[in-house]
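Journal club side-thread
Mid-discussion, someone asked how the predicted structure for our own chain would compare to the paper's figures. Pasting it here so we can look after the session.
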Amino acid sequence: MSDPVKDLRQAIARGRLALVYVLYGDEPAAIKEVVQAIREAIIPADDLTAQSMAAFNHERFDGGDVRSASQVLEACAQVPMLARYRLVELANPDDLGKGGRGDEGGPTSTRDAALDALAAYVKEPSPSTVLVISGAGIDGRSKLVNAAKKSKSAVVQKFEAFKRDDDARRMVIDEARERGRTLDADAAFSLVSSVGTGRTELLEGLDRVLLYAGERTMIGVADVEAVIAQTREVDVFALTDAVGRGDHHEALVLLAQIFASGEKETGLAHRLFALLTRQIRMIMTAKAHAGKFGAVADVPPFLVRKYEEQARGFSMERLRLAYAGLARLDFDLKGGSHIAYASPFLALQRWILEACDALPGVEPRR
């Protein structure tokens, strides 16, 4: 599997810039990397002219601060000064219309109207502006995304956790190499096993590991284990394993402890969602390949035994329902449900009860 971040960065470095980028998903680190690559391509750090004109050729907006889409579109319509392109960035377009009153003194543009205006622009973008739209809350089924997918001038990319552990390990080893370090295979395995396959969590973990290692170039499993042991307050993998065992009592207790850590609820919910998705996917694979999971799974023997044991506690129907529930949860956490968006903790509680076949008033499915 290719790394979409690496692919996009290489295309941008070769000068293959699109006029519109729509970047979304639960991987803020991936979005940040691509946006930074676009900035460096349009406003190179070693180009004095580009740097001197940056104040004229680079504008950033956040949806929560924008009164109407016209502010962004007017920025896109301006002509670049002493440069080929202007760069306009819009983060969190799902928050458009929350920034006060409209430009003409009328009411603020509604969110749907603002997104419709952006979708119309994507169909015929300015040839001298690169518009980068990014945010975790972008709905992949929206008019904006659909318009971008149909446009020859746009690039649409959803960023999500790696589906395969070896892809995640390869990415983090490559990232360490780019920083002049060597992360051995066991250290990469330990890091992925500790934080999951999400790029954001892996890079945060790698940062801590490299800081701990100091100036040493060779990074081993002991470095990873030392940092993970020092920084993890609540073991999120105890939560995923409790779900895997169908133990909703322990899972709910651990969930409450994790949310009591003080971390921002939305970010925490998306991180837990990625780990729970991986857990259910591994159990489904173990169920589908009963007796042969070790041959198809890229995990060590002790994890093979764990997933095979957990798979025996589920029927394939229950696993499919749990996975479907995760798809619904993903949509709800991104604004599909006001209750879930406002209280991710309650949304995850309900999903755990459903997945563990313990929802009150519902006949258990075995």
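Post-session note: The chain has a mean pLDDT of 87.
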